[in-house]
Amino acid sequence: MPSPSPSCQARVLSRNNLITNTSGIAPGYLQANLLILPSKHARDFHDLCRRNPVACPLLGYTTTPGNPHLVQPPSCIQNPDFDIRTDFPKYRVYQHGKYLATRTDLLDIWRDDYVGFLIGCSFSFEDALTSAGLQPRHQKTGRIVAMYRSNIPLLPAGVFASGSCIVSMRPYREEDIEAVRNVTRPYLATHGEPVAWGWGAVEKLGIRDISVPDFGEPPTFEGGEVPVFWACGVTPQMAVESAGDKIEDLVFAHEPGHMLVTDLTSDDLQRL
């Protein structure tokens, strides 16, 4: 019997609460962010993703409301031993647009009308950066990547009538930025190349204090480094916040930095 793939092993570890920060886990496999919401809002969220493909690149979704085991396209999760309620390391719970709690599974609060969406994650190209001699600082230090609320507006869809994008940040020397852009550009399904860089971008993006991220952990800079920003898959959580009371039911998302490892690899990028 063949051994489980690294992606399947990572999901089992997540299910058993044995890993948290998934940066660097299962190199070469694409990782995913999460949003789960009632099926009556699924079309609006799907439209939001299509209108905002850089911030919310759609990798996969559950096709049958209430079925936590089946994801389309089938290549996204190939092993039948899958459960969207348990296979992320941590989950965030929202109601009326407000964050309520973080949990390790959703088993006892799952309902039969929920639909899940998997959104591309920038962790997916970090292995390629490392191979190019550009390993992200947060991997070296074992920290969670810094993420910030920005002033980049989302194009609205249905109940998601407003909101702005989250950006993740990795420090790089200015002379390395072109190489960083070249490495990450092919990863369109997982946010692609940076949206902004340099110290001037901090103010332009509306970030108040680079040392105090809204999600993740504070970054460290070395001499000659500047911030480099990517669109981030925590953005759907900001869309849920902006929807507020328009969504009365519980909504679930991943805890930032705690992703699902899919069965897709960098070789699949041209087909996504």
Q: What order do the helices and strands come in, and which of them pair?
A:
Layout: H1 6-15, E1 29-38, H2 42-51, E2 58-62, E3 71-72, E4 91-95, E5 98-103, E6 114-120, H3 126-131, H4 137-141, E7 146-153, E8 164-173, H5 177-184, E9 196-197, H6 199-204, E10 225-231, H7 235-243, E11 251-254, E12 260-265
Antiparallel strand pairs: 1-6, 1-11, 1-12, 2-3, 2-6, 4-5, 4-11, 7-8, 8-10, 9-10
Description:
There is one protein chain. A hairpin with an 8-residue loop joins strand 2 and strand 3 (about 70). This protein is an alpha+beta fold and about 270 residues long. It has helices spanning about 5-15, 40-50, 125-130, 135-140, 175-185, 200-205, 235-245, and strands spanning about 30-40, 60, 70, 90-95, 100-105, 115-120, 145-155, 165-175, 195, 225-230, 250-255, 260-265. The strands form two sheets. Strands 1, 2, 3, 4, 5, 6, 11 and 12 form an eight-stranded antiparallel sheet that branches.
Mean pLDDT level = 96
Q: Based on Cα principal axes, name the global outline.
A: globular
Number of strands: 12
Instruction: Give unreliable regions as ranges.
Output: none
Q: Structural class, judged by helices and strands?
A: alpha+beta
Cα-atom Rg, whole angstroms?
A: 17 Å
Query: What is the first-to-last residue Cα distance?
Result: 30 Å
What percent of residues adopt helix (DSSP H or I)?
A: 10-25%
Q: How would a textbook summarize the main sheet?
A: 8 strands, antiparallel
Strand content: 25-35%
Total helices: the number is 7
- The arrangement of helices and strands along the chain is HEHEEEEEHHEEHEHEHEE
